[in-house]
Fold this sequence. Notes:
Layout lengths: L1 H16 L3 H6 L1 E9 L9 E3 H15 E14 L2 E12 L5 E13 L2 E8 L2 H7 L5
Parallel strand pairs: 1-6
Antiparallel strand pairs: 1-2, 3-4, 4-5, 5-6
Amino acid sequence: xxxxxxxxxxxxxxxxxxxxxxxxxxxxxxxxxxxxxxxxxxxxxxxxxxxxxxxxxxxxxxxxxxxxxxxxxxxxxxxxxxxxxxxxxxxxxxxxxxxxxxxxxxxxxxxxxxxxxxxxxxxxxxxxxxxxx
Length: 133
């Protein structure tokens, strides 16, 4: 099932690139939770449900513009998928550039995302998923 889970997560990334919000949210379970453990761009804490995640991302995009995520290294562990992304953007008010890595730990059940945790360091996400480097 892990390769199928990787494809679900990749599909979310591709839908986001197309700005297909409906496809992104269709991949989430109704009780999905997204924990921001990075505190890199403003801590949103834990967003709950597709609407809560949408609201958190809306607030984030109000602060940043020209945002682009590049798909990077992937590790899978059954129900968990770890993906490191490169994030580029610019502060909407300040114009300050963003160029950094972020790693997301996606947990899926029955083909739906039930939990996402973000980490500033890939090693932390791998450890949380029980994957040894």
